[in-house]
Amino acid sequence: MLNKESSIERVIATDSALGAVARLQERRGPIMFYQSGGCCDGSLPLCFDYGELIIGDNDVLLGRVGGSPFYIDHRQFEVWKQTQLIIDVGEGEPEGFSLPADGTKHFITRSRMFSPAELVALQGGDLLRKQRESRIPLRLDARARS
């Protein structure tokens, strides 16, 4: 049984991914992620300089990776909401418009299904997160980034 104080995250990252995020932040400043829904970019997490991708009203803040926000389209969230995303690093250049993870590496998404107990705990956490997010701006203007 889960402790009420347990923190269940919808998105987590491996040590390799966290290291790549830290190095990117050091070189470029704030970054953000958006989980691609398929087609041209497959289902890879896309990494951008913070604010480079405009977040819409229907995008969901899934969590943070190394302090950087991680968004997903609300329709894709509905399909994947029983799944924890695990961000990792893979060999090869990134596809599409994503920043590289590190040199010639790219970010990848692995996943696992939440247990029934985790899903119950997440339902309460999602309600609290929505309340907090409604008070947090989704975009930084140019002054806030420098």
Descriptive tags:
146 residues, Hypothetical Protein Aq_1857, Chain: A, four-stranded mixed beta sheet, 7 strands, globular
Can you walk through the features of this model?
By secondary structure, the chain is an alpha/beta fold. The chain has one domain (11-139): Hypothetical Protein Aq_1857, Chain: A (Sandwich). It has helices spanning 15-28, 74-80, 116-133, 142-145, and strands spanning 11-13, 31-35, 45-49, 59-65, 68-73, 83-91, 105-113. The chain has a four-stranded mixed beta sheet with strand order 3-2-5-4. The termini are far apart.
In CATH, what is the class? Mainly Beta
Share of helix, binned: 25-40%
Task: Flag low-confidence runs.
Answer: 1-5, 134-146
Number of strands: 7
CATH topology: Hypothetical Protein Aq_1857, Chain: A
Order of helices and strands: EHEEEEHEEHH
User: How would you sum up the major sheet?
Assistant: 4 strands, mixed
Total number of helices: 4
Q: How does CATH name the architecture? A: Sandwich
The total domain count is: 1
Strand content of the residues, in percent? 25-35%
- Strands ordered across the widest β-sheet: 3-2-5-4
Distance between the termini: 45 Å
SS-based class = alpha/beta
Indicate the overall shape. globular
What number is the mean pLDDT?
82
> Radius of gyration, Cα only, in angstroms?
15 Å
